[in-house]
Amino acid sequence: MTEKEYPLLFKTSLLKLLPFASTYLCETAFSTLTAIKTKYRSRLNVEPDLRVSVSDNISPRINILTASVQAQGSH
C-alpha cells in the first residue's frame, strides 16, 4: 500500500497514528482503553477519556500561556 494508491486512507491513518510516536505511549493508550471499555462502561466515544488518561503526565506551561494573553482592563 502506498500513499499514491490510497491518499485519503494514508492521510487519515497518519493523523490517527501520529500521537502514538513511541511504543510507551501506544502501550499506555491501549492499557487505558481496555480499562475504559469494560463490560459495564461500553461507551462508543472514548476519545475524550482516552486523551485525558494518556496526557496526565503532561503539565501545562502556564508562564508561556499567560505571556501570550493580554489582561483585560477595567471598564
UniProtKB/TrEMBL annotation:
- The name on file for this protein is SCAN domain-containing protein 3
UniProt superkingdom: Eukaryota
